[in-house]
Design a protein that fits this description.
The complex is a heterodimer of chains A (488) and B (485). Chain A has 488 residues and is of the alpha/beta class. In chain A, 41% of the residues lie in helices and 13% in strands. Chain A has an 11-stranded mixed β-sheet, with helices on both faces. Chain B is an alpha+beta fold. Chain B starts with a helix and ends with a helix. The chains are: A alpha/beta (488), B alpha+beta (485).
Chain lengths: 488, 485
Amino acid sequence: MMNGKDILSLSVRGIADAVQKRELSASDVLEAYIASVEATDGEVNAYITKTYDLAAAQARRADERIAAGELPALAGVPFAVKDNFAAEGVPMTCASEILRGFVPPYSAAAYERSVNAGGVLLGKTNLDEFAMGSSCEKSVYGPTRNPLDHTKSPGGSSGGSAAAVALPSAAWALASDTGGSARQPAAFCGVCAMKPTYGAVSRYGLTEFASSLDTVCPITRDVTDSAYVLEILAGRDRRDMTTLDLAGTKYTEGIDGGVRGLKIALVNGYEAFADAAVVRCVQRTAEILRKLGAEIVTVDVPWLGEAVEIYLTVSAAEASSNLARYDGIRYGNKEDGVHITNIMKNSRSGGFGDEVKRRILTGTYALTSVLTGDYYRRIKAAQAEVCRRIYDLFGKIDIMLMPTAGGTAFDLGSFNEDPTAMYGSDRFTVIGNLTGCPAISLPAGGDGKLPVGVMLMGDRLSEKMLYRAAFAAEAELKEFVKEETGNV
Amino acid sequence: MSEKMSVSGYEAVIGLEVHVELRTGRKIFCTCPASFGAEPNTQVCPTCLGMPGALPVLDETAVEYAVRAGLALNCTLQRTSWFDRKNYFYPDLPKGYQITQNDCPICLGGFVPIETEAGKKQIRLTRIHMEEDAGKLIHRGDVTEIDCNRCGVPLIEIVSEPDMRTPEEAKAYLNSLRRILLYIGVSDCRMNEGSLRCDVNVSVRPQGSTEFGVKCEIKNLNSVNYVGRALEYEIARQAKILSEGGVIESETRRYNEDRGITEKMRKKETTVDYRYFAEPNLPPLCLSEEYIDGIRRRMPKMPEERVEELCGTYGLRRDTAEQLVQTPRLAQYFEDCAAHTDYKVICANLFVGEILPVVGEECAEIYLDPAAVGAVSTLLGDGKIVSGNAKRLLHLTKERGGDPKTIAEKERMIKITDESVLLPVVREALAANGKVLADIRRGKLSAKKQLMGHVMRATSGGADPILTEQLIDRVVEEALGEEEI
């Protein structure tokens, strides 16, 4: 019989395997994880809502299915869900005052698939309000702390999900990524995040921030878990018309196939936007991949800064429209007013935090063509040009290797004085969202106790190749991570 | 009437924006039912209530209906169109934006044929686009309630060019448009229930001018007649202002049904910015040639075309033909019947007289097998039955089934044209009605009708009326002659 610590050390596959073989029951696994949540969350604050009763029922159901001879892929695996995904009957707050009291009568497709595969929901994790932010501080439920250093941010917006996986107080977690919201916190917490191709995973039930950029991501402890979970999440969903038909893609298959012959590119001049430790980790990764048989080249992408500006405009514009529905009338927190217009105004003024309001205002302005002279159309044209250039690039190389973020986790409160300074931390990640291309962040070393993540990005639908490269690098990088972070 | 006088010397320029609810039975972006008059907020789901992450999924039937409308109205169908968000806050708009087609609508161009006393004309269309409806606000005293049942009901908006010049043309346009849409079955077009809604744009200019004047928009028009009356009033109002040297303000106006006048709602703002952008949750709508052809093949012939055909090949009168083509089902039923007889005109008259009143223009059910209707028409055409018996024969055939001719024979409905059969019956009639002869002798010739009635009763209406009349005359003369001797 395994003890709690042994159980927590198991990977997603490890848990599913043990539960399928009845070496562990789903209820045993749940018990160990609940103990971990209870021991850690008071300090870290990864969770907004804990769903132990629901989890107990789901664990029982998983055990029953095993007893009936089924072998669900995520049998008994306790997971966490960022609180901008709907889970029927569980409050969904998006870390915002305006959704206080909202209990969705429907479930997000990604959550549903995870539960149907035998998963057990531990709870809903913290985020920056409506996923707008990079620090997981802009939450009405307080900041989440980096599990490796409680004075630091876990990154954001999916800070709660990344922290929970790092602790671990969840075996894996669902996150969303609109400009880096899954990859950057994964890098800050020393875990793995795959932002798949736009359309690979259904967004149904994911609260919209910027619909054309929002992506559903698994945050996991390692690369293989990521591929394993993505197999369950990915594929056409008739409730999301932007999903792609990926029927039966086996992301784990051939994951150990190596990188021989792959052309992997470093971005010229990236060092100017990265700390020394980050540069060291990127170079180390390149060196490892070269030794394993990849060809390392460099490419010029001098417009990454402009891409961030395009991203900020597009995401704010869509957000201004997506968040128009929160008026306090049909659901969520309603403020009083003498006239219906006042009810809407008061609910929105009181319900949204500063960062959300900033984006709504920016986006509303950007879309108001009479004020900006068709600015939005020109921004969209620039985005199309970015896409063209990146797709051209992927005609010549296979993978771009970049830092996930320019530095390691920053102090909580770092950006209180100048909130927009935080936008620059998306420099390397937004390009994946603007182009719909997949990108995976994995730990590559550390600086002090804090982990450093590197990112591999490929052309659309190149997830299998990215997993292969990440898997190969991960095996070699593990030792460095352990050594440089003191983390096992 | 003084206002009417001032119209002379001015010409109106009229364009219509018509919203039509597509009768697909469900909403355009979710699978909620879309029926009129349900309990408030019973036909709603997370998507049409605008809950977070409940994404829109475009209903294929709505697309098909829009394509049908585009084909019927002679439009150019765009191979690629897309949806945009029209952003504005209103309590009946759950998402804070309406999904519509702004930049690239599904149909461009097209026209609606109209006919007024001034003659035939084609009213050009600018575009047809697809969109979702908003909810309804219900005001009760100082409380306003929101009914979201209508949120997401599929609409097409049909925008005309400013091609109409008179209220009559606007009415003819609406009637023609309505008939076509009803004909292709995409909407029930009930203005009183709001499944066809019309906004009117109208400006006035001096006769002979080619420049457009300042236009006003009139809303809240719930019938074709109100459109006509509102336009008459509005044209007179604008013409009066111009004739007095005044300036027209661009306004949104409403028609007051009770007073028969238009009233100012608000000044037109020129700076309304709906912050349109492409709806990211819906991929571009791409229509393949095969898809459009498939719908085109399933399209019914348009009523005008069918009328021409019926008049040309069957030799029907135009008013008869128009009665037969009110709906595709009705027209098809008639054509099936007519295929079973050589007497097309007789069949058409029989159909209009006896069958149309039973099945109605919707023709939801077939009254009688087309072959039987054709057979009855043939019996009529061959002079085998008298027209007075046609209805009864149809009824009996429906009741009993089988061949109308056999039934007619059995019921002795076949016209008796044989003198040797009929003469004894006439003699018998005279014998049984002795008083008739006396009446005739006194000069009351109409008494012969009693004899006719007797014969008809005795032959179940089968006696050839003309022959019978001749025989009655002959037998009566004989009888009178005998008396004189």
